[in-house]
Amino acid sequence: MAAEPSALQLPRPLAHLELLDSMTTGVVVVDAALNIVTANLAAQDVLAVSLNAMRGRSLRELVIDGDGLMASIERSAASGATLSEREFRLVSARAPGNERIVDIVISSLGPEEAMVLLEITNATERQRIARENELLARIVSGRMMVRQLAHEVKNPLGGLRGAAQLLERELADPALREYTQVIISEADRLAALVDSMSGPAAAPRKQLSNLHEICEHVFRLVRAETRGQILMERDYDPSLPDAMLDPAQIVQALINVLRNAIQALGERGRVILRSRALPNCTIGATRHRLVACLQVEDNGCGVPDELRDSIFLPLVTGRSDGTGLGLSLAQELLTRHDGLIEFESAPGRTVFTLLLPISQEAQS
């Protein structure tokens, strides 16, 4: 007696699809109506749906704002051509907050099969690394520009101050010396501002430090400043090890970022101070075995679009009473530790992330 035909007849190249479950590339097969035939584990992770729950359902139901992708699949099925979508924004309907940036290759399995194969490669990490490298390049360029500007400004300020002192000696009327004192004090104030723009002069004095002690110190200090108007929470990872760093500089950087979040909220809102240990994390072009991740999350209105590319540059601020030096100094302090500050922002959720490499010496 002949064997009963399988309810699902896969094309021969995909008859042993379970072998693809070991791949990091997502593989999805859809029929002519865009209904899912099968998918490997990586694809199930991207779509946030198990195979049993997605099989037979339309891909349209599982992807938010995927009209461009669906059109490409239909074109591939009709023409038999292989198409690709690079850095496609993929948002699962089951997990809308978990956005992925992916590269998708779409291949028709032939007119006789009437099926289309999707190969989904997660490009989120690649895009993050590219964004960090771009940020680091802007930081270096901005730092050089500021230091050159500081040099050009401080020279005439010194001459101005010296001339005011000489003039003061020649004035017989003491009442007129009040004006020279204004000139001298303003010259000193501008010189101090230029020094602040240039960043800290001292190199980090690193020592083995407990990051949670630093977080607690900063948390208590800033919470006292809010007078209970802002809801402040903390979420610490107990597995985070000690790190070799300059505690004073990291305290200053974290204070600046946390105060920036508080000031962005105004009179009401919520801030979360979070710590995590990230294994095999890349900062810029360097891969580290372990990185300390400190996050400051607030539920304010978000970073304005016009400030996103320049928010870490000196004198850039979104507040009328701001100096624009807090985040610039914090970024400078992190880069002195081979770390980085990055952020993601949308209305209702802004997260500033401080990344600090943990050396093997500190782990031992």
Describe this structure in words.
By secondary structure, the chain is an alpha+beta fold. Helices cover 40% and strands 26% of the residues. It has a 6-stranded antiparallel beta sheet, with helices on both faces. Strands 8-10-11-13-12 form a 5-stranded mixed beta sheet. A hairpin with a 2-residue loop joins β12 and β13. α5 packs antiparallel against α6, α7 runs parallel beside α8 and α8 runs antiparallel to α9.
> From N to C, what is the helix and strand string?
EEHHHEHEEEHHEHEEHEEHEEH
Cα radius of gyration in angstroms: 28 Å
Computed structural class? alpha+beta
Number of strands: 13
Helix content: 40-55%
Q: How would the global form be characterised?
A: elongated
Which sheet architecture does the biggest sheet show?
A: 6 strands, antiparallel
What share of residues are in beta strands?
25-35%
Count the helices. How many?
Answer: 10
**Termini separation (Å)?**
67 Å
Mean pLDDT: 80
Uncertain segments: 1-9
Strand order of the largest sheet: 2-1-6-5-4-3
What are the key terms here?
single chain, 364 residues, alpha+beta, six-stranded antiparallel beta sheet, five-stranded mixed beta sheet, 10 helices, 40% helix, elongated, disordered N terminus
